[in-house]
Please model this.
Amino acid sequence: MFHDTLQANMHLVNTAILERIDADLNVTGTIDPEVKQRWYATGLSLFYDPVYEPCKAWISSMGRNKYLTPQYAALEDSGQHDLAVTWFCDNIDFYHPVSMTAIEGILGTTEADCTTSRVDGYIIDALNRLIDGTFMQ
Model:
């Protein structure tokens, strides 16, 4: 209920308030997925740095739509589209097709958009391994 109230009053919330809540309650370190779902989305919306790494790890460890979509919506709605697409592409082989479709709808992107970035990444990785001599190892 606390997090729902916090989200309902986002126009009154800033990172200083998030820092105080986090210092008092260690919300960023919670193991409760219901809390993570709300806290991470709130933090992402307000560019609260401490939530980015644990949120990325969390959305890369499970594929439940209920928990994924608020994170991607928070990124998209706060102008962090490129980061959201990067996170989505990093996990595209992991997510269930239903989750993929929901996230594609939020981001206005498709799996094909990730293929290009993955191919580019493979090429860059291969070139780097050629340069440092580890390509065939």
